[in-house]
Amino acid sequence: MPLSRRSFLAGALATTAGVLAGCAGTVVQAGDLSRLRLMAPASPGGGWDTTARVFQRVVQTSGLARNVQVFNVEGAGGTIGLGQLARETDDALLMMMGLVMVGAVDTNDSATRLADVTPIARLIGETELIVAPADAPYSDIAGFVEAWAADPAGTPIAGGSAGGTDQILAGLLAQAAGIDPGQVNYIAYSGGGESLAALLGNQVAAGISGTADYGEQVRTGDLVGLAVSTAERSDQVPDVPTLVESGFDVEVDNWRGLMARPGMSDQAREDLTALVVDVHDSDEWAEALETNGWSDLLLAGEEYGEFLVEEEQRVLAILREIGLVQ
């Protein structure tokens, strides 16, 4: 079936649609997509929550669904929400997730795996930015790596939660630079604001976070931009080179995507995928990408499922080298 708004609306009007209410909750069968629920498996204000709410706004303004609700399920790198999704019976539910959850499944020893739910589509990516304090003795990534290799334990690197995208990037860069990832002195902070304070206070040698967290300080000269993680330079910090062009074979997108409940019909999965593709193709979504500095990384259906399998293998390997999982 073509992934188009027509197929989505056909599903929404399908005669097989029905709602069964009971003490166990509402069961929404395939085709009932006149309304949509979006789970952000983290606290309000974070990346998953922000992306879910932008998606909500575009769905509503584009007329793709009349009633769109975003709700938060916090905890354990998103794996609490993942476990809840695996028990859901609602076909009109999407869960926002991303690279952080891939690592969190292993670091939190989650009983629910990504393979236990249904992949719908990868949506966007955010660029990771490696920075140093303004008065650091190095001004590029090569200089930082030289100092890092000489004393890994004495070169603290600030970033987000343990096992998340920032630490994964630190481990991959260590590998590429010939540094034992298990020797990386990574200091996990609860958010970009805390790690930014550590950098500005010269408490760490470098920091890793999204361009949204550090980009302004790089532009004003309060921090030095050493490298970005993506294949191409970021429009947010266009003067900062990529790791690849700096001689390190490392590429990381802090991507986000959508999953749905397990056991859904092919029709229900196609309807949800069609909705996501229609959102992606809208002018409102293109504007949101530019406004938020997001990369367009749409990958739908089986290709997204295959990507997830490869990503799980890559992340698990580096988490083992870092020593976060056995």
Automatic annotation (TrEMBL):
Signal peptide (from-to): 1-21
- UniProt entry keywords in alphabetical sequence: Signal
Which InterPro entries would you find in this protein's record?
A: BUG (IPR005064), Bug_dom1 (IPR042100), TAT_signal (IPR006311)
Pfam family membership, one: TctC
Domain of life (superkingdom): Bacteria
PROSITE patterns noted in UniProt: PROKAR_LIPOPROTEIN, TAT
Q: Which PANTHER family match?
A: TRICARBOXYLATE-BINDING PROTEIN (PTHR42928), UPF0065 PROTEIN YFLP (PTHR42928:SF3)
Record-stated family: Belongs to the UPF0065 (bug) family.
Q: From the Swiss-Prot or TrEMBL record, give the protein name.
A: Putative tricarboxylic transport membrane protein
Tell me what organism the protein belongs to. Answer: Geodermatophilus aquaeductus
